[in-house]
Amino acid sequence: MAEIAAQTEQLNKAIKEKAGKYLTFALANEEYGLEILKVREIFGYMDITAIPQTPAYVKGVINLRGQVIPVIDLRAKFGMETTEVTEETCIIVVEITQDDHKFSTGIVVDHVQEVLDIAGENIEESPQFGSSVNTDFILGMGKIGDSVKILLDIDKVLNSDDLVKFAGAAKETAKKAVKETTKATAKDEAKETDVKQEVSTDTSTEKGEA
Q: In what order do the strands lie in the sheet with 67-73?
C-alpha cells in the first residue's frame, strides 16, 4: 500500500510540473502543444535553402537576422503526408537542448492556434501502445473542453544525432560566414584608407609645386 501511495504521489507531482502555458498548433487534423518557454519566435513561411544529404524531414536553413537556423518539417518528422504551403503555414523557432548545448531550430506547422494555460489536473499521461511504439516525446495529453491536445517534449521530438550535427554545422557555417564578412570589410576599409592617403599625398605635392 505504501509503495502504491508513493507511486501515486510521484505521478501527481510529475503531472503538476507539466502544468503551464502551451503554444498550440495544428498538423492536418491533429492538435499539438509546445511549452511556451521553449518558443523563441513565430513568423510566416519564408524561403528555405535546401541542404543536400540531410534527412528527408530537414527542409534546410534560413537566415534569420544573420543567424543560420535549421528548419524541420514536423509533418515529415512524424511520418505524415506533406502538404503545400498556405498563407497559414508558419515557422516556429524553438530552443532545444541536446547534450548541454542549446540550438535554435525552426519547425514548420500548418497553422498556429493560441496560447493555453493548462492546469495539471487537465493533463494526463501519454497513452502506452506497447514496447514497439515510442511515446517518450509526448509530455502528456491536454484536455481542453471536448478536445485533446498532444503536448510535446520538443527536445525529444528533435532528438537525433543527425539533427544535432546539422544544427552544429549550421552554427559553424554562420560563424565562418561572419568571419569572412568581417575580413572582407576590413580589407575594403584598408584599401579605402590607402586610396585616401594617396589622394592626400598627390594633393599636397600639387600644392607644393604651385
A: 39-44, 90-98, 101-109, 67-73, 58-64
- Joined together, the cell numbers standing for residue 146 give 471536448
Reference 109, options 130, 142, 83, 133; nearest CA is 83
Instruction: Compute CA distances 56 → 17, 37, 72, 77, 78, whole Å.
Output: 34, 28, 9, 8, 11
Phi, psi of 25 (to 5 degrees): -150, 170
- If you search the block for the grid coordinates 543527425, which residue do you land on? 162
pLDDT of res. 21 = 95
Please tell me the pTM assigned to this model.
0.72
Please count the other Cβ atoms lying within 10 Å of the Cβ belonging to residue 70.
25
Three-state SS across 136-188? Answer: CCEEEEEEECCEEEEEECHHHHCCCHHHHHHHHHHHHHHHHHHHHHHHHHHHH
Per residue in 159-197, pLDDT (tens digit) is: 865 565 665 555 555 555 545 545 555 566 556 655 556
116, 149 in Cβ contact below 8 A? yes
Low-confidence residues of the chain: pLDDT under 70: 1-16, 129-133, 160-210
Classify domain 2-165 at the CATH superfamily level.
CheA-289, Domain 4 (2.40.50.180)
Cβ neighbours around 1 below 10 Å, total: 5
C-alpha cell of residue 123: 493533463
